[in-house]
Specification:
Blueprint (H helix, E strand, L loop, with lengths): L3 E4 L3 E2 L5 E2 L2 E4 L2 E3 L9 E3 L2 E4 L1 E6 L3 E2 L2 E2 L2 H13 L2 E6 L7 H4 L6 E3 L4 E4 L8 E4 L4 H11 L3 E5 L1 E4 L4 E4 L3 H13 L3 E6 L2 H10 L3 E4 L8 H7 L3 E2 L2 H4 L2 H8 L4 H12 L1 H11 L18 H10 L4 H6 L3 H6 L13 E4 L15 E4 L2 E5 L1
Parallel strand pairs: 1-6, 8-11, 11-12, 13-14, 13-15, 15-18, 18-19, 19-20
Antiparallel strand pairs: 1-4, 2-3, 4-5, 7-21, 9-10, 16-17, 21-22, 22-23
């Protein structure tokens, strides 16, 4: 039994919905005042725990990490307000972390699936096209309803970004995942890769830096969301500089993708493409930067409430997780100010409540 917590401030049940009167009773939320007095009263603006929809707990620059390192990553994310993670590929088997009630909830995707010698070493299951469908089936069964494809990467022979797999093979692989009851998301930097993925019936796109006007109506029509990972895309100039001498075409391409990163996302948002927040923490990006990504979306032109929604209410609905609803798990953040108007308040949370347990306070 975890007792009763009263949330005495405004309760934001959606980006435009506000209520008063919320309690956590033995780990579950209720809008009905309990008969017993609360053991704790927390004042401030209440929102659901944040969602990092592209995160790699259990992954480091070289691949797998120790259990201590994986735990530390999860704690860092939790303490930044991330209480739900959609894993986007990890070598480490994080099922043991899912059993920890003091750590964020994790929706696992198994390992990345990439073309042989066409991705970061040690991170992915690497296959040739003829092995893609079976690899997808295997990772679909190993995860919690998601499969991660590496849609494109540098082709050293071509000297530029190129699709990892033929379009027909990708379509068969996506269908195989769907047959297994899993959704598919794909790492996509280049323009043409997006056409193949949309043709294949993909369920989500990571990064999406190659987004062009011709793609936008298809994203809207097919209901395919984008997780832009803008704080990761900020590293493109450094990647280009490192590649310049050997792969000048690739370097120029990466710089051009970086240059229009904000414009593309704003155009997509204004056209009705769904955007979700993801940090890509785990290899190059350190954990605990969820607020930086929310603010990056706002800096790109999304209204503050929309940027917050991309990491909160709508993200939870998309992943099948409860928000601030009757009998939901009490996974709650308490802010000093209205975060829809001042995103900076997310960086200095008053309280974090996970599964009805108060984890931090001022």
């Amino acid at each position: 039994m975890t007792g009763i917590i009263e949330f005495s401030g405004p309760v934001l049940t959606g980006p435009t919905q506000e209520r008063r009167g919320l309690w956590a009773v033995d780990g579950q939320l209720t809008f009905h005042r309990p008969a017993a007095a609360p053991e704790q009263v927390l004042d401030g603006w209440v929102i659901p725990g944040l969602v990092d929809a592209h995160c790699h707990i259990g992954l480091g620059p070289g691949g797998d990490v120790s259990e201590d390192a994986a735990e530390s990553q999860a704690v860092t994310d939790r303490d930044a307000g991330t209480l739900l993670v959609r894993d986007a590929g990890a070598v480490h088997d994080t099922r043991w972390l899912q059993q920890r009630t003091d750590l964020p909830r994790i929706i696992r995707a198994g390992r990345h699936i990439a073309r042989t010698r066409r991705y970061l070493r040690g991170l992915a299951v690497e296959v040739e096209p003829e092995g893609l469908v079976e690899a997808v089936r295997k990772q679909a069964r190993a995860g919690d309803g998601w499969v991660k494809l590496v849609g494109d990467w540098i082709d050293r022979d071509a000297g530029d970004l190129a699709a990892s797999f033929p379009a027909r093979t990708v379509k068969d692989a996506v269908q195989a995942a769907h047959d297994e009851g899993a959704r598919v998301t794909a790492h996509c930097f280049a323009e043409d890769t997006l056409d193949d993925m949309l043709d294949a019936g993909i369920d989500c796109i990571e990064h999406g830096t190659g987004l062009l006007p011709r793609h936008v109506p298809r994203f809207v029509e097919q209901g395919v969301p984008i997780v832009p990972t803008l704080i990761n895309i900020a590293t493109f100039p450094d990647i280009a500089a490192q590649a310049e001498a050997k792969f000048p075409r690739y370097a120029a391409h990466m710089r051009s993708l970086w240059a229009r990163r904000a414009e593309r996302i704003l155009e997509a948002h204004e056209a009705g493409v769904v955007i979700y927040v993801g940090t890509d923490a785990g290899s190059v990006i350190r954990h605990g930067r969820i607020v930086d990504e929310i603010r990056a979306l706002h800096a790109a032109g999304l209204p503050a409430a929309a940027a917050l929604d991309a990491a909160s209410w709508s993200a939870r609905t998309w992943l099948g997780a409860d928000g601030l609803t009757e009998s939901a798990s009490a996974d709650v953040l308490v802010c000093a100010e209205d975060p829809r108007r001042n995103l900076a308040t997310l960086a200095e949370l008053r309280h974090i409540v996970l599964r009805g347990k108060l984890l931090s306070q001022e």
